[in-house]
Amino acid sequence: MKTLKDLGDLKGKRVLVRADFNVPLKGETITDDGRIKAALPTIKALREEGAKVILMAHLGRPKGKVVPELSLAPVAKRLGELLGVEVPLAADTYGEDAQAKVAAMNDGDVVLLQNVRFNPEETSKDPAVRAPYAKKIAALGDVFVSDGFGVVHRAQGSNYDVAADLPAAAGLLVEKEVKALSKATENPERPFTVVLGGSKVSDKLGVIENLLDKANRLVIGGGMVFTFLKAKGYEVGTSLLEEDQLDKVKGYIETAEKNGVELVLPTDVVVNAGFPAGDTPVAPEVVPADAIPADKMGLDIGPESQKLFHDKIVDSKTVVWNGPMGVFEVPEFAAGTKAVAQGLVDATKAGAFTIVGGGDSASAVRNLGFPEDGFSHISTGGGASLEFLEGKELPGLKVLE
């Protein structure tokens, strides 16, 4: 994979950078600017070299239409505050305004192009549709830097086709992500523990399959755990359950046993009358994992499991965590996710290499107030880090070779 060093002297060069600024918004307020901050090292390095930095990114899913609420204006404003310079936002991605703003740039200037997904060609599955569009973007730059790790698992116009049109390299963030995830999957220090949560088993099938012969220990929580508990013959009440995955999960339980992989499931669960929304009252109750009442829904791992999960994590040299343990947005069901995060922090202090695998886990860590430097690495890409852990070839990385 080519890196910034491979691009040579960038003074005065127009450098197109694909960043990941897909941040959560409340109106026009950014509620978590982690992804913007993650892009700063690359932007600063390019500015110091005297490059003209032209940033492109997407926000939300406008489906190829101009959706004013998904404008990158809040991102341009926040980025300007973080860099201490004005970051003008072009009104389009490659049209007249983008061309004029790029033409007016001096060395070290930064410009942000409007949401690339306002263009229907950006996410087209047809390379023949994407290629001419990508050429229009490529015409704005001299070289291309891929720094949006959150999109490298997709072949899209602004991260894949543009890379084929210009000299291309990975930015510092993508380089850091690949190094960290490779360290965990290629030759991990052992014991190697993988903690999986989140709502669905089906989202994590590939990861489980790929890691069943790599990890020493699989720790399972979140909504996906109830399919595991059901596969063991337990009743799961009204908890989230993927009936169509039961046979597969039974197979995983057998394979884990055969491979000597320790499969850690919760021994107790926090239940409620239903999902805490609307008229459903929040009345948490702790029950054994093999005795969930028929009319109750499991929403977090219980106190005994929190200690168990924490201790298993601390007893590891490499830990990868992807997916919360419960409905962490509701304080009564956040303790399991907190216990896992604390386990990773304590393991890091003890010298372990720890990765928080993007998406909901990264946002949980920040929302629950954990310091970012408490972990070896917090990934910026949920789907991308999952596919990397599955051992899949990621098109946005392949194109940089």
TrEMBL record:
It is found in: Cytoplasm. Gene3D superfamilies: Phosphoglycerate kinase, N-terminal domain. Its main location: cytoplasm. It catalyses: (2R)-3-phosphoglycerate + ATP = (2R)-3-phospho-glyceroyl phosphate + ADP. (2R)-3-phosphoglycerate binds at R35, R117, R154. The keyword Transferase applies. The gene is pgk. It comes from the Bacteria. This is Phosphoglycerate kinase. Substrate binds at D20, F21, N22, R35, H58, L59, G60, R61, R117, R154.
